[in-house]
What we know:
The protein is of the alpha+beta class. Helix content is about 30%, strand content about 35%. The protein has 6 helices and 14 strands. The strands form 4 sheets. It has a 5-stranded antiparallel beta sheet with strand order 7-6-5-8-14. A 5-stranded antiparallel beta sheet has the order 9-13-10-11-12. The radius of gyration is 21 Å and the shape is globular.
Amino acid sequence: MNQSKVVVTAPLWVQKGAQNFLGGNRIDLLEQIDQCGSISTAAKVAGMSYKTAWDALNLMNNLADQPLTVAATGGSGGGGTRLTDAGKKVVHLYRLVDAEHRGMLARLEESLGDFNNYLPLLQRISMRISAKNVFSGTVCDIVRDISVSQVVLQLKSGHQMTAVISTDSVDALGLEVGSSAYAVVKASAVMIADNHLALKISAKNRITGQIAKITESTVVGEVVLDIGAGETMTATITDSSVRNLGLQEGDEVCAIIKSTSVIVGVE
């Protein structure tokens, strides 16, 4: 009986923490942005929706040490976005690694021979999370108590993010001042307020930013804030709240997050 030839394949993903950071489709998107100067045009060429492209860019810029894209004027297809030097370097390095990766797979395929007579290769299991907001930072303060502790992360945007987690988790994660960690926040846990109102609230985290994008729907929409240094904060709020607050792109607002809503992770 004829058997199909076994071909060894494995998509190349560069990860930061528990998040997929760079992959072939995202690199394709960055390359098209570099050529087109437009997210919408690049998304079409890369075969993805505008929202998927936007979300991918936000995630990449949040996880990158330096912004990979920057707003620009002009450009074909409407313009508006170009790659930074860091973005171009990331694309170049990924292509070099990808070439080596494909060569390694080809050599592995040759060495396996009759693959069906051997145990399947074990693949690395990567965790994927649904939270929109993932920020890399440095632990700048830890206040320990018997059962719970307060951990403060310094984000690359200059903002601080405070999380209240169990003291056991602090020890299990090996957290200490100066160590690297990630702050994960669900978009539904982010509240939006007028930055000019003198609110007295108990929430620890008040992060100011400029509205970069508003996506409206029948009931619930998304508000994306530019909080600086290429980082964005996404909030899921009702369309009625968007209207009642009179939110518009370009407005300066405040993202409010309870410290108990912040999850801390490490690589």
